[in-house]
Amino acid sequence: MDGLIRTDRTEVARPLDEAISYPPADSFGMQRAVRVLLRRRRLVAAVAVAITLLGIGYAVLQPPVYEARAELLIAPNEPGGVTSSEEAQAARPDAIFVESQVEILRSPALALQLVDRMGLENDPEWSNGQDNRMAAARAVQDAIGVERRNGTYVVDLSVKSRDPVKAAQMANTLVELYFSSRALARHQNAARTGDWISGRLSELRNEVQVREGEVEAYRAEHGLLTVEGSMLTEQQLREAESTVVAARTDLAEREARHGQVQSLVRGGGSAETLAGSLNSEVMVQLRSRQADVMRRMAEYTERYGDLHPSMQSIRAERADIEAQIAAEVQRQAQNLGNEAAISRARVGTLQAHLSGVRGRLVGNNAQQVRLRELERTAAAARGVYEGFLQRYHQVAEGFAGLGGDAQVVAVATPPSEPTSRPLLTFALLAAALGALAGALAAFLADQFDTRIHAAEDIEEKTGADMLTSIPLLSKRDLTALPRIDRHPAGFVAAKPLSAFAEAIRVLRLRILHAGWTQKVRVVAVTSALPGEGKSSIALCLARVCAFSGQKALLIDCDLRRRSLNHLLSIDPQVGIMQVLRNETQWSAAVGVDEASGAHVLPAAGDCYTAEDVFGSDAMKTMLRNLSETYDIIILDCAPVLALAEVRDVAALADGVVVVARRGQTDAMALQTALHELKAVRAPVLGVALNGVDARAPGRSSYADPLYFSHAEAGMYTL
Question: Both 432 and 301 in a single domain?
Fold first, then answer.
């Protein structure tokens, strides 16, 4: 019958999902982390201060350290101009080279060589007594600082030591070892590179010979011989073509002359005309003789006349010459015909030869494709061989210049003053570490702290509803009150418009509206353990109910402590025990609270008894009768885990309010008390968290109703 509220012993259902509850807080969100840090700020501060002081003390107690510096100039083979842009400078090949040399100076190998050279493995400053050599090398490497000056080829090398002279010696020795390692590296690289290139050259030379041998063998096999860089067949083709062209030209010329002569002969041309077309020595002589005869014949005609015997003789000579010219023409014409026939036959022979050469060339095309492929392969092999040969000569002649140039700009000298102790750096680092450790300690403390600190802890750790947060009243708040009223109930009466009184009113409203069909008339106020303020809250609740116009009755059910008598400064003669024993009427035992008008049924005298008075019929009858007179009855009960009788009282109430004190109530105790009340089917309304300081850092959250009550400072008065 969980979640039931009873009025006059009548069960009234109140569904749990209708109860006002706050959304569950995340397991470890940012807001909660901040609240934890603020709530544990003293622990965080203590841890942070302690670790900071330890760091500063460690820095102060450290022996002085001296730093010796040397400067090197490390330039690549082809140094470029220095640029103003750091990114552009860092991307240059020469910058990469310098950075590589910087890493060599920082290398463990060089530090180990320094340890061996100076015998530092036996030096207490560098050795820890175990694995002296390697431990000293690691310590020396940590003491070496190498940094390239921005935008230059200058490298600063520093060594820190407790001995200034030793620091300078270590720096200068490290420089010497660096130069020795560079020289050794160049020599080894040259030897390795030369051996590799030499072996590679031998392989490439053999490959070139094999490829060229394949080319020549293929030429010889298929007759693809070359003369002066071209194929023999191609040269033969060009020669045959030029010969055929010349023969055809000669044939055309001879046929033209023969045809011309034959045309003149067939056309009846004169001897002079025929003689002019023939260009032979005989014809020239005959024509010369003919011209001489014609000249003499003209002279004789003029001198002797036609009938003179000399004329007869000269005419006979003329006829003879003309007969010789005619015979010569016939002979020359026949010779021209013969020559034309010979030229024609020669052209035919040459043409046949040309066709044969062309046939051979066409037949060699397939072999030439394969030959060209072999030639390309041989040429590629030769190109690689020649490239490696050139590289070999470069390595052999100038390898000593590779790897850049390095020189000492300034040698290290023993420093006169130690380096400043980094107190500020140690302090800042220690403070940061302390803050982190303090935060971790705060989270661990909060994780293992089972006490209730905020409203969200109630629902998260116990599963109960949160009714309200009741503010913490400081001594300053109570000082202005009369001495007799310096308690929370007196403050409620004196400051009814304060935030504290408003929190009690919130509790009253939560009680009034807790019922589903009927109002809650009987309210039991208890706590898990003593000292959590439940009597003060019960009296405050009674006064606020009276201020609100309700007829309220407060009954002291804590027979052992009787805290209400102390709060109200009363010493009654009759009380609840006398009423339950029928020694008096309740009306005679009830008094009036002058500050609020609420009625009070106290516990009078030494009234504690072993009797089960609260589980008796008399108790039930009394509550039934009182419910007819009062609007609300508040039962100030003893702590649940202190007395068993509280369970009987809680079982008679229409609602139970459990008071917990922030920072004091243990969550396990509260959870146990709630479990005990549940076991007797007591209608627990929820938990009121007492003593909450909403203004303190980390003391409240959005899940706390008190958080919003302080949103506006002007809403309340003190």
Answer: no
